[in-house]
Amino acid sequence: MSAHDGRRELGTAVAAAVVAGGLALSSSGQAWARVTHTRPAPLPPIDAVLTGSQAAPLVPAAGLVLLAAAVAIVAVRGAGRVLVGLLMAVAGGVLMWSGVRAVGGGLLAASTNVPGVGQGGGQVTVDVSAAWSALAVLAGVLGVAAGLLVVVRGRGWPGMGRRYEREPGAAAPQRTDEDRAQAAWQARDRGEDPTDDPTDDPTDGPADGAGRPPGRTPV
């Protein structure tokens, strides 16, 4: 896998996790059903809205997990990234199950979460708005797909700060004139002469005819 392909797949997984989490949170705040409880006279009827967070509390929780995972898959690598992918797939599965369960009759059971509904006898009717539960299912599909992509392909993707790492054996970056000037000013601040070469030995010099450095006499 090339670095370009890895970055593209990583971006795709992050975007899918963000979209799935956003859809889940948006869906959880909408009215999934309208509940009407017709009670015996003289009690007035109860007409209330059942939101997604009331009908399926796991939907907003799974949405938050997916948003957090979008950050985590960039920050971690290797086995940690695979674990994040598995968590994303589980969160997506929870969203799909919650949406399908709501459409399949779960909203009638959840209508008792509305204060006063189901108490005192009478008839309870639930008018389901299937669009929002279907949106949760769509978010779940995206979450599962993104999670499986991370599990299968995520080990080879770059991580946070990868661009600043140097491959073993790679040449060190060349110093620019600005770098040398800055180093010279730092040396002056330390009281050093920036023109001195710390590798030079002041006692070394051209050898005399006897092969001795100047300033040294035989013992």
What does it look like?
With 219 residues, the protein is mainly α. It has a single domain, classed as Butyryl-CoA Dehydrogenase, subunit A, domain 3 (Up-down Bundle). The protein has helices spanning 3-28, 52-55, 58-75, 78-110, 130-153, 177-189; strands at 31-38, 46-51, 123-128. Strands 2-1-3 form a three-stranded antiparallel beta sheet. A hairpin with a 7-residue loop joins β1 and β2 (46-51). The longest helix is centred in the middle third of the chain and has 33 residues, at 78-110. The model is unreliable at 162-168 (pLDDT under 50).
- Strand/helix succession: HEEHHHEHH
Helix content: 40-55%
Largest sheet: 3 strands, antiparallel
Could you tell me the CATH topology label: Butyryl-CoA Dehydrogenase, subunit A, domain 3
According to CATH, what is the class? Mainly Alpha
N- to C-terminal distance: 69 Å
Share of residues in strands = 5-15%
Radius of gyration: 34 Å
Tell me the structural class: mainly alpha
Proper CATH architecture = Up-down Bundle
How many runs of DSSP E, i.e. beta strands? 3
- How many DSSP helices? 6
Q: Which strand order spans the largest sheet, edge to edge or round the barrel? A: 2-1-3
Which of globular, elongated, flat, extended, rod-shaped describes the shape? Answer: elongated
Total domain units: 1
Mean pLDDT: 78
| Uncertain spans | 162-168
Task: For the structure shown, list the relevant keywords.
219 residues; three-stranded antiparallel beta sheet; Butyryl-CoA Dehydrogenase, subunit A, domain 3; mainly alpha; 9% strand; elongated
